[in-house]
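Our consortium's second objective concerns turning raw sequence data into structural hypotheses that experimental partners can test. To show how far this objective has progressed, the report includes one record in full. It was chosen at random from the queue rather than selected for favorable results. The single chain below, 89 residues long, was entered without modification.
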Amino acid sequence: MNREPTTAPTPLCQLNAGAVGRVCGLTGDTHFCQRVREMGLGESACVTKISGTTTIICQVSGTRIALSHAAASHILVEKMITPPAPVAG
């Protein structure tokens, strides 16, 4: 699936539910950055925000992960365009 970035980097917590983003940067201390990379949220990972404002539920590589709003604010993403699904016919 071809996904192209459409916006400047924004914190993961600011994506709308259902939106897809590509991680383009991590802020925060070294321990935090290493931990989120270990969870699959490293640079260039595609992440889908499932729901949440206080606790953020997102999906990365088929795994759902819950993050605090503070943690999600340190994960910078570029919002992606997801092409429409093919029409069956």
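The partners drew two points from this record. The chain has one domain: 4-81. The domain at 4-81 is CATH 2.30.30.90 (SH3 type barrels.). Both points have been shared with the crystallography group to help prioritize constructs.
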